[in-house]
């Protein structure tokens, strides 16, 4: 037995050729996205014994491995999920911030224009041209509010569309991963090209949601979406989709489906772009829309209320300029009913005090036999509600919930958004500029009054006998404990009553009626003197209406009308800046994880070029051994001839 130089050389050539092939493949794929560097592992063949010594018999390539660090890949997926979420949030917030900065500036500008025209009416109360201008500015303000709400609705639709398109792509990835798993199970998970493709798909998936990867003994990988939903199990692929929102249909939810079973996914556990889109919709778009509705209610209520306190140019009680705040077209979407409810109660929401509204949302829950609780979804505060006949739930922040029909069952829940739909429903209902109530009645409270009662005239008939004019004023003494009133003339003589009344309405019988607002608990006796004479040049109510510009009417008396919109704009600006900072931070973390993966699995062209030269020399040296073996063989043959 002798050392087989020719076979050793042949093995060396083949091994070097394999090394050159792997190195060349690395170089060729240096710019291939998702490619992991490969290395060929060489091993020595079994040695043979000659005499008392063991001699090597050559080499072979024992394995071609894909350089892969599972921990580094996991870090990269986590970094990708965080980066995608941060970038999506920043993009969406930037779009909304731009909307409020450019188009949104028309809202406060329109409101300021209205007040400027009201001031002009106060200067010239009888000028029809100025009144026309004021009415036109109010119409334009309503249209601006409508347009702003339309833009917010479009943002919601666009967000919903993005969610739907992402679920479509996730399903495509799910099917591809299932097919790859099937192929890997056939090869024992050794196909580097399939593994690279699998890893690239998982990396793409991590853009849309948080991903957990579970390696299987078969060489396949199971994929969990959002840490709770199995998307791929071996070769079996599940699917995700969107379903109608609950309780609001225009806010669709995301579901995971396996066979005939469907599960609603909690968006707070998703992360990635999907989680960011859901967060943007629920934490920014919905509140912005509700706060815009709060402003619309504030505008309509403030001007309509001032109208009801004054006289128009015809001497009549002022009528609404804007649509009533509780009109069905102003209240769409105030109540959302969950599909899981077993009762048949149909609810509506009536706004009682716009100034107490917060612009937020609530959750109403019912526990049998008669416990009603209202939870503020922003603060978490829970308030008990009282059920008054025939079906009023009182105790809300400026609103009453009405059970119009049916009954609640134990565990029923509703989402209450008191300001929803108001901005899209805001419109002017006044068409005659003479209807703007610039003048006002003179109602004087007695000095001895309790201060717990207010009155407001709501109808007049100037042709009625005894109608109170200057010099013929009438004083009405009201006993709210006994619900009676008595009327006195200017000399103090009783001319009517005491008469019973049903609160809050009092019909005096002298051509006017009014309603009382009694804030006392046990009732009081207060007197008010009425002078309902009318002069065309009277501007007192117009002056009071103009003062609404600076009046803190909203959020419990802390914010002006313009302030409501500016607070929303400021909040969106702050969120946008915070989103930018998060995006920059996430980019730095992702880049660090990416660099680590590249340092281990990426192709270094300088290193591969050096390897190419080394394996080329090895190939040439092995070929030289073959030449030497051939020469030795020829010499041996020649020597025995």
UniProtKB/TrEMBL annotation:
The keyword Secreted applies. It comes from the Bacteria. Its main location: other. Residues 93-322 form the Flagellar hook-associated protein FlgK helical domain. It is found in: Bacterial flagellum; Secreted. NCBIfam families: flgK_ends. Belongs to the flagella basal body rod proteins family. This is Flagellar hook-associated protein 1. It comes from Shewanella subflava. The lineage of its organism: Bacteria, Pseudomonadati, Pseudomonadota, Gammaproteobacteria, Alteromonadales. The gene is flgK.
């Amino acid at each position: 037995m002798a050392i087989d130089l020719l076979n050793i050389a042949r093995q060396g050539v083949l091994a070097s050729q394999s090394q050159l092939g792997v190195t060349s493949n690395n170089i060729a794929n240096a710019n291939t996205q998702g490619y992991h560097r490969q290395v060929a592992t060489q091993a020595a063949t079994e040695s043979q014994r000659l005499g008392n010594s063991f001699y090597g018999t050559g080499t072979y390539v024992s394995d071609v491995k894909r350089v892969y660090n599972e921990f580094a890949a996991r870090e990269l997926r986590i970094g990708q999920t965080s980066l995608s979420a941060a970038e999506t949030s920043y993009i969406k917030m930037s779009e909304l911030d731009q909307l409020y900065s450019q188009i949104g500036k028309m809202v406060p500008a329109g409101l300021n224009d209205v007040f400027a025209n009201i001031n002009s009416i106060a200067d010239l109360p009888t000028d029809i041209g100025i009144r026309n201008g004021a009415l036109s500015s109010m119409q334009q303000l309503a249209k601006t509010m409508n347009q702003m709400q339309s833009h917010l609705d479009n943002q919601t639709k666009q967000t919903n569309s993005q969610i739907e398109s992402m679920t479509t792509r996730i399903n495509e990835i799910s099917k591809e991963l299932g097919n790859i798993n099937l192929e890997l199970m056939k090869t024992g998970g050794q196909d580097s090209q399939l593994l690279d493709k699998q890893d690239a798909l998982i990396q793409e998936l991590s853009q849309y949601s948080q991903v957990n990867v579970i390696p299987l003994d078969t060489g396949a990988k199971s994929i969990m979406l959002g840490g709770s939903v199995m998307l791929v199990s071996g070769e079996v692929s599940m699917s995700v989709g969107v379903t109608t929102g609950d309780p609001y249909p225009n806010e669709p939810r995301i579901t995971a489906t396996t066979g005939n079973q469907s599960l609603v996914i909690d968006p707070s556990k998703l992360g990635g772009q999907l989680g960011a889109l859901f967060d943007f919709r629920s934490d920014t778009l919905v509140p912005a829309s509700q706060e815009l509705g709060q402003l619309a209610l504030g505008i309509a209520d403030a001007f309509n209320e001032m109208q009801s306190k004054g006289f128009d140019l015809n001497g009549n009680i002022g009528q609404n300029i804007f649509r009533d705040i509780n009109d069905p077209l102003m209240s769409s979407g105030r109540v959302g009913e969950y599909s899981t409810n077993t009762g048949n109660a149909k609810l509506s929401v009536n706004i009682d005090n716009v100034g107490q509204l917060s612009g937020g949302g609530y959750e109403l829950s019912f526990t049998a036999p008669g416990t009603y609780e209202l939870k503020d979804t922003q603060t978490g505060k829970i308030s008990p509600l009282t059920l008054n006949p025939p079906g009023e739930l009182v105790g809300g922040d400026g609103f009453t919930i009405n059970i119009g029909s049916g009954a609640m069952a134990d565990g029923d829940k509703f989402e209450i958004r008191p300001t929803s739909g108001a901005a899209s429903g805001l419109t002017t209902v006044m068409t005659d500029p003479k209807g703007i109530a610039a003048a006002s009645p003179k109602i004087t409270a007695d000095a001895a009054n309790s201060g717990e009662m207010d009155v407001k005239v709501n109808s007049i008939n100037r042709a009625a006998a005894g109608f109170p004019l200057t010099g013929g004023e009438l004083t009405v003494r009201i006993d709210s404990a006994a619900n009676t009133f008595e009327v006195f003339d200017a000399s103090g003589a009783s001319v009517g009553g005491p008469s019973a009344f049903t609160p809050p309405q009092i019909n005096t019988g002298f051509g006017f009626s009014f309603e009382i607002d009694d804030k006392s608990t046990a009732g009081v006796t207060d007197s008010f003197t009425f002078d309902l004479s009318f002069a065309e040049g009277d501007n007192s109510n117009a002056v009071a209406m103009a003062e609404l510009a600076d009046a803190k009417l909203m959020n419990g008396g802390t914010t002006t009308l313009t302030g409501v919109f500016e607070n929303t704009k400021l909040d969106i600006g702050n969120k946008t800046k915070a989103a930018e900072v998060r995006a920059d931070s996430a980019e730095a973390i992702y880049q660090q994880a990416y660099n680590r993966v590249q340092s281990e699995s990426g192709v270094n062209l300088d290193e591969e070029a050096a390897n190419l030269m080394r394996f080329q020399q090895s190939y040439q040296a092995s070929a030289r051994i073959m030449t030497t073996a051939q020469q030795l063989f020829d010499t041996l043959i020649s020597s025995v001839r």
